[in-house]
């Protein structure tokens, strides 16, 4: 039997991954109400991805870690953390008696078994990616036991690709998506770097060895 619950909803045009830390500035009246309700009742809320002009079926349940700051006009800065991925079964533009949306969701099972060989390949390409971008410190900070969710926002994926990653219920499948993406973008990135170098050298005196013919 599937695990379902009713969640307050805060649609955003982003993808939130499990365990991701997300800081939000709350300024709309409906979401001020949502945050205060969740804090008062010690409840979580859902962030479904707003994509292609509508609220997507998939999203992530998040918990409020703390309200960092309250402003005189009622606005707030909050710290949150992603918990579990869900699929919306029924969506209400306004939850009963509230200003904000709500929805009945099915909490999805998430397979964590990974492919070690794929992970090694991903790590090698990540090192190459970060070094090429001049972000070697990101690679050094990468934990040995990193998951797809840990690097999901660092790969240059667009919103649709991140949303596709969110829907995969197997870590091995997520790794495969990430590996294919890295294998696709790395040659393009390296060619761009070569082009930048050629542009920089344009006009310089070149010490070229003539071909022997």
From TrEMBL:
Domain Lon N-terminal: start-end pairs: 6-184
- Tell me the organism: Pontibacter chinhatensis
**Annotated protein name in UniProt:** Lon N-terminal domain-containing protein
**Entries under SUPFAM superfamilies matching the protein:** PUA domain-like
Q: Which SMART domains match?
A: LON (SM00464)
InterPro entries in the cross-refs? Lon_prtase_N, Lon_prtase_N_sf, PUA-like_sf
- One Pfam family linked to the record: LON_substr_bdg
């Amino acid at each position: 039997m599937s695990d379902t619950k009713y969640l307050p909803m805060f649609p955003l045009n982003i993808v939130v991954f499990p365990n991701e830390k997300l800081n939000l500035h709350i300024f709309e009246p409906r979401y001020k109400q949502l945050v205060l309700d969740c804090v008062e009742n010690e409840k979580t809320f859902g962030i479904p991805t707003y994509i292609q002009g509508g609220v997507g079926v998939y999203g992530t349940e998040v918990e409020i870690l703390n309200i960092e700051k309250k402003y005189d006009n009622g606005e707030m800065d909050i710290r949150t953390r992603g918990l579990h991925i869900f699929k919306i079964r029924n969506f209400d533009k306004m939850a009963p008696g509230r200003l904000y949306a709500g929805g009945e969701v099915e909490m999805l099972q998430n397979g964590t078994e990974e492919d070690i060989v794929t992970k090694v390949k991903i790590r090698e390409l990540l090192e190459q990616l970060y070094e090429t971008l001049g972000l070697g410190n990101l690679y050094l900070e990468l934990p040995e036991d990193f998951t797809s969710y840990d690097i999901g926002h660092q790969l240059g994926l667009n919103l649709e690709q991140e949303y596709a990653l969110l829907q995969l219920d197997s870590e091995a499948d997520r790794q495969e998506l990430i590996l294919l993406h890295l294998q696709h973008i790395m040659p393009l990135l390296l060619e761009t770097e070569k082009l930048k170098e050629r542009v920089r050298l344009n006009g310089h005196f070149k010490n070229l060895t003539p071909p022997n013919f």
